[in-house]
User: What shape does this take?
Amino acid sequence: MKTGFYSDPIFLAHDTGGHPENAGRLEAIAGRLAEEAVTEKLEFRAPRPATREEITAIHDADYVRQVEEAVLAGQSQLDSPDCILSPGTYEAALNAAGALIDAAVDVEEGRLDNAFVACRPPGHHAEQTHAMGFCYFNNVAIAAAMLTEKMGLERVLIFDFDVHHGNGTQHSFEHRKDILFSSIHQHPLTLYPGTGFAEEKGRGEGAGYTINTPMAPHSGDKEYLEVFEQVLLPAFREYAPQFIIISAGFDAHRDDPLAMMNLTREGFDAMTAQLKQLALESCGGKLVSALEGGYDYNALSDCVASHLSLLQADPE
Ligand SMILES: [Zn+2]
Assistant: This one.
């Protein structure tokens, strides 16, 4: 299949020093991909900065200005010590969102079958009016809003397998049914950000279109796949998405230093393969996956390389 790969040195310019979310993550991925045959078939694409109008589909204009001004003023952090700023942060964040938008448009319009966006900063914790959890702009939410509002899609599925709850994405869409948000994550009583209980199911017209499946610490492939195959996939099939976006964080891996889960690459692969199959059945394969967390270089690069080979493999 024709799989797009969006990345760029501009994502390295968000300099967080020794913070776990650092440029070395993307360098590790690039290093691993260079060794693997998978890169031969990828369509490499460079990002462009998202426009202010695109970002404000999700974030308040005042907040966007605040991020820009904080960077220009040389502030060292935004909203919390978790969100470090450097001179390159604002441009990197705009390009991460722009890459997601371009990937979604290229797939929706058939120039690519699917795509992976290797960007940073990540996005799924970013809220309408503030930065959170290493995230400034919610890349995935911005792309989903574009698909529904500009391209007229009526059913977009966002599945978030990052070990942390995608609070920003949920809050962006929990009142809507044209975007189904589903997150599988370590139980909120045991991990940041402390939201994502099973009882959070959406509100108003969006009731039933938020699906949270918190997992007990130390869950592994078996526990994840039971929930994924028995609870989530049937719900996703019934929704019949016209487009699938994956918030692909690989920090539920057993080697990850930030959480307490025991997933292996095989567990992530099984979810990826089944999401790809669902996309083929439901929407001609339209799927965009975007990097969120994942902080062990080896586990991260191994999982991303495998994720990419599954995305680009021809269907049997
Ligand atoms: Zn995470």
Remarks:
- The mean pLDDT is 97.
- Residues 145 and 198 are 24 Å apart (CA to CA).
- The longest strand covers residues 179-186.
- Residues 162-164, 249, 251, 292-293 surround zinc ion (CB under 6 Å).
